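Lecture 7 notes: from sequence to structure.

We start with a single chain of 88 residues. Read the sequence below before looking at the structure.
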Amino acid sequence: MDPISLEELGLLDVLHRIDEGQEPGQRCRALRERLLEAALVDEDNGSLRLTQAGIERCKSLKHRAMADFEAELVLKEREEAESADASS
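Now the structure, written as tokens:
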């Protein structure tokens, strides 16, 4: 599996901000439209809120980012162990 992309990290950031009430401004109309078309958010009186699909996508992206982080730590530990073994 490929590591999480920058685009996916950006989407996670946007979804998290919307969940926290810090939605993109009106100048980001194209982004708002894409989120609405993808059914990740609903618009209610001009405010965006995550749909169930948006919540699930956010969870999925968080899990993926954490898995990448954990994998990076495991690889680093292996490299350090191999370096220590080679030095002995």
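Helices lie at 6-19, 29-37, 52-87. Keep this in mind for problem set 3.
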